[in-house]
UniProtKB/TrEMBL annotation:
PROSITE patterns: NODB (PS51677). This is Bifunctional polysaccharide deacetylase/glycosyltransferase family 2 protein. The keyword Cell division does not apply. Residues 691-722 have a biased composition (Low complexity). Belongs to the glycosyltransferase 2 family. Residues 76-260 form the NodB homology domain. Gene3D superfamilies: Glycoside hydrolase/deacetylase, Spore Coat Polysaccharide Biosynthesis Protein SpsA, Chain A. Keywords: Glycosyltransferase, Membrane, Transferase, Transmembrane, Transmembrane helix. The chain crosses the membrane at residues 296-314, 581-604, 610-633. It comes from Dactylosporangium cerinum.
Length: 730
């Protein structure tokens, strides 16, 4: 309706948002993948017979023709091997024991742990020990597709290269054992380019059978052959293993302890290529970044949940207190404050304007004038009003200048000290005006918000908007009323004292949310703004997602404009800056901007967190929302039927609203002036509100006999025009 310079809305940020969410999800999944790393907890299922002939050595390689070659540790030597590390607690203790007794060993490391503890990997190499690959996430290679097998091995090799600058040739599959227990050659074939190292003697130390049992299982007989011995330095409590290693390597006259490569006569590992090292560093940085992102996301979820719960608690407590106060006020007889002027700015409102004007004229307030300002409509709005021929209704026509200009025109023509500003698609209940002006008995009150209800609440979209009005808007208004920081008197039903409008030079026209801008200005001028919940009006809500998007984009962008315009209130003594602006910034701007991150974390949780835990959290939070919504509906005397749609709100409606905030934020940062998004009116509000009753079935309020004539707070007798109504003034 207002005329603004328009700029094409930016589009590239949607691609950036999707890419950012995809990268975030990838980082979270990487963190979930590597944090799923465990240790040996039990052998993988094996076949009854091995595919290898008896006497096959523990070091295997499959050549191009499929033939298997093997090697074994010579007599008199033992290759101690340690799986599942490095571990920051147990690996150093094992290294200390080996160093004290000048023994060397081979460590089959997990790639994800290498990236977490690269300094331990460098110590292993510096003290003369050998490294081998034990996959990146301790995955059972036999259960993985070929691409995942290669990925597990290559990523671990790259991680070792980044940590040590050297490449490795040895690999041990998790859950492996002796050659006699090898069910197939799939894992050996997958490790092309590596030597697969199984074991001669599996101590099963992961079972923690006791130090004596581990020592007995590790040491071969004095005259027996050499052996590859499997132990573990990570993946759980390895205190028994540490004690057993001390005894194994300290025995006088025992075997010679060698690395696997030394035992079978292989040369030392070669330096890694620059590409492998670079890939390893990139992987380590990505893994570290994923950990930081996951931690940050966790604290974001905790903080957001805490703030949401705090907001809910404060809203409910404030609503209860406000309801008690409102109930006490309802018991007092309604008063008349003289002539009340109702200003209706209208632009292309032919579908609803007749019902709006009739509902205003039919109000039970005894002294009422209705001023309809047709702001250059291109439809029959003015003609519809003129044909009504209702007493007390004046029609003013003007060229299109925007809603704020139309409001100021109507206010200037009005004769009352109290002015009700009404949208052209709003239908008032019969007692709405009388109840709306009651708070003006307090001379400090400069503005009053009424209770806007959704008339066309059929279908999911209508029910969602109905719940949003009742739960979100009205609970907030009750809280704002108690906190004396009401940031918005809605354009659908709001009343202002003329003196308050004079103090702020009328309705501002430099933001898209003129109602929020005006309310903030009134508060900063020292007036109070309150909420009259029993003053009910019905409005036509957007009937399609596209219309809803346009409306909420205008609201959100306009609210940001108004908050920025009145930012100096933060340094003033009023409650607008201390409470209202802070609340808007946290709960209507910042938290919605984090909502896409929360949704990404929810998707991640479905794959990497226990399903029961995720379901319990979601159900618990949804149950709280349902209870709060039920309480809000009861306060507004509404049926509880729409509550079943609350869970569905989290899937569609919530996403649309936070995307509106994203779009508004981008537009605000780019500094573009946005045009009004005009909603096509269908007359649904008029059709949905029967005469004298609302869609909820609530009966109309008391008739004119219930309004007691009185002199207004400004001392103006009923029926007289304001003494300050002079040319050039409002």
């Amino acid at each position: 309706m207002a005329r603004h310079v328009s700029r094409r809305a930016p589009r590239a940020h949607w691609l950036l948002l999707l890419l950012g969410m995809a990268v975030l999800l990838a980082e979270l999944c990487l963190n979930g993948w590597v944090n799923g790393v465990g240790g040996e907890q039990g052998p993988a299922p094996v076949a009854a017979e091995s595919v290898l002939p008896a006497g096959t050595g523990p070091v295997l390689q499959v050549d191009a023709g499929g033939a298997v070659r093997s090697a074994a540790i010579p007599a008199g030597a033992v290759a101690l091997t340690f799986d599942d590390g490095p571990d920051p607690k147990w690996t150093p203790l094992i290294l200390d024991a080996l160093r004290r007794h000048h023994a060397r060993a081979t460590f089959f490391v997990v790639g994800a742990r290498v990236n977490q503890y690269p300094e331990l990997v460098r110590r292993i190499v510096a003290e003369g020990h050998e490294l081998g690959v034990h996959t990146f996430t301790h995955a059972d290679l036999a259960a993985l597709p070929a691409w995942r097998q290669r990925l597990e091995l290559d990523l671990t090799r790259n991680a070792i290269a980044a940590a040590t600058g050297r490449t490795v040739r040895l690999m041990r599959p998790p859950y492996s054992s002796t050659p006699a227990a090898l069910p197939n050659l799939e894992t050996v074939r997958a490790a092309s380019g590596f030597l697969t190292v199984l074991t001669d003697r599996d101590t099963e130390d992961w079972r923690r059978p006791g130090v004596d049992a581990i020592v007995a299982a590790a040491l071969p007989t004095p005259a027996g052959p050499g052996a590859v011995v499997m132990l573990h330095d990570g993946g759980g409590d390895r205190s028994q293993t540490v004690a057993a290693v001390e005894r194994i390597v300290s025995g006088a006259g025992g075997p010679r302890f060698v690395t696997v490569s030394e035992g079978i006569g292989l040369p030392p590992d070669e330096p890694a290529g620059a590409g492998m090292v670079a890939r390893g560093h990139a992987l380590r940085w990505a893994q570290a970044g994923a950990g930081w992102v996951s931690a940050a996301m966790w604290w974001l979820i905790v903080a957001g949940t805490a703030l949401a719960l705090l907001r809910l608690v404060v809203q409910v407590i404030a609503a209860r207190r406000h309801a008690r106060r409102a109930a006490a006020a309802d018991r007092r007889p309604l008063r008349s404050f003289g002539l009340v002027s109702v200003v209706v700015p209208a632009y292309n409102e032919a579908a609803n304007i007749a019902a709006t004007v009739r509902s205003l004229v039919g109000n039970d307030y005894p002294q009422l004038e209705v001023i309809v300002v047709d702001d250059g409509s291109t439809d029959a709005t003015a003609e519809v009003v003129a044909r009504l021929g209702l007493p007390g209704v004046r029609l003013i026509r003007q060229a299109n200048a925007g809603k704020p200009a139309a409001l100021n025109t109507g206010v200037a023509a009005a004769r009352g000290q109290l002015l009700v500003l009404v949208d052209g698609d709003t239908v008032f209940e019969p007692d709405a005006v009388g109840r709306l002006v009651q708070p003006f008995a307090d001379p400090s009150v400069g503005a009053v918000s009424g209770n806007t209800k959704v008339a066309n609440r059929g279908g999911l979209l209508g029910r969602w908007q109905h719940l949003e009005y009742v739960v979100g808007f009205n609970l907030d208004r009750r809280m704002f009323d108690l906190g004396e920081c009401m940031p918005t008197i809605p354009g659908a039903i709001g009343a202002f004292r003329r003196a308050a409008l004079l103090d702020v030079d009328g309705v501002p026209g430099d933001t898209l949310a003129e109602d929020t801008d005006l309310t903030m200005a009134v508060l900063r001028a020292g007036w109070r703004a309150v909420y009259a919940e029993r003053a009910v009006a019905w409005t036509e809500a957007p009937a399609t997602l596209r219309q809803l998007w346009r409306q909420r984009y205008r609201w959100c962008y306009g609210t940001m404009q108004a908050a920025w315009k009145h930012r100096r209130a933060l340094r003033e003594h009023g409650q607008l800056g201390r409470r209202g602006l802070v609340y808007l910034a946290v709960f209507q701007m910042l938290l919605p901007l984090t909502a896409p991150l929360v949704d990404v974390y929810a998707v991640y949780s479905l794959f990497f967190l226990p399903v029961a835990q995720v379901a319990a959290v979601w159900c618990g939070f949804t149950a709280l929302q349902v209870l709060a919504a039920g309480y809000a509906l009861r306060l507004d005397r509404e049926r509880l039927g729409p509550l079943w749609t609350v869970p569905l709100q989290q899937v569609v409606y919530r996403q649309l609203l936070y995307l509106v905030v994203v779009q508004s934020t981008v537009a605000a940062l780019l500094g573009g002036r946005q045009r009004w998004q005009v909603m096509a009116r269908t007359g649904l509000a008029a059709a949905a509100v029967p005469p004298g009753r609302g869609p909820s079935g609530a009966a109309a309020g008391p008739g004119p006999a219930g309004v007691t004539p009185d002199h207004g707070p400004a001392g103006v007798a009923p029926g007289r025009g304001p003494a300050s109504d002079r040319p050039g003034r409002l």
